[in-house]
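Internal tracking record. Fields below are filled automatically when a chain is submitted to the structure queue. Please do not edit lines marked as system-generated. If the sequence contains nonstandard residues, flag them in the REMARKS field before resubmitting.
Queue: standard
Priority: normal
Entity type: single polypeptide chain
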Amino acid sequence: MKPVRFSLERLSTLFQDLKVATLAQLKAALGTAVDLTVFRKLSALPYRTSYSHRGAYYTLDTLARYDELGLWSYHDIHFSRHGTLLNTAAALVSNAPAGYFIDELDGVVHVATKDALRQLVQRRQLYRREWEGRYLYCAPERERRQQQWAARQAQQSPEDDLQAAIVLFYSLLDEKQRRLYAGLESLEWGHGGDRRMAQLFGLDVDTVARGRAELLSGQVLRERVRRLGGGRPRTEKKRPKS
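SYSTEM-GENERATED OUTPUT FOLLOWS
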């Protein structure tokens, strides 16, 4: 008895005709009732699963017309080069010049992202910080998220040219320079300056206070971003036992 053969060409023809298809349509095209048979055939194609509609739709990368963010919509069905909604949210937030608020990201991907963002923060794949009663979602890397925070501050206060210039200048500095500059600005404000600068630049209050103290004491380290011994301890190389 000959084994049943399922033609890959049938799937390709279906996608060319419909652009987007459900699992039921794919099974009908192959003449099978088995999900695994469909996925075995799909594995030979550059296919993509929708991040909307709980992944119920499929398309081919060769048919998708992705925009500059790697997104493509077919009617109300949405696909991403990044794959799932979790992966898409993580990539978009990390690459955004000024991070995203939830409603902004919802508008970009056209689906609700609140739960996905919550999961990503819990997994430490994203970072969030409160800003005027809302959370701004940023990249997990400290330097990157500080740049995003500074850019957001400049965006949110376009009428204050001086503040916009301050946060833009701050975003160009290295870690030590940012700490010292925040401390310098804190001195200008006097009482409450540490907290104000921490809010402006997205820093811990203690970091601002440290920069201020370094300036006042004159103990500003040259040629180093961290104090000697700071940062992660070196990993001791283990010699193989003879």
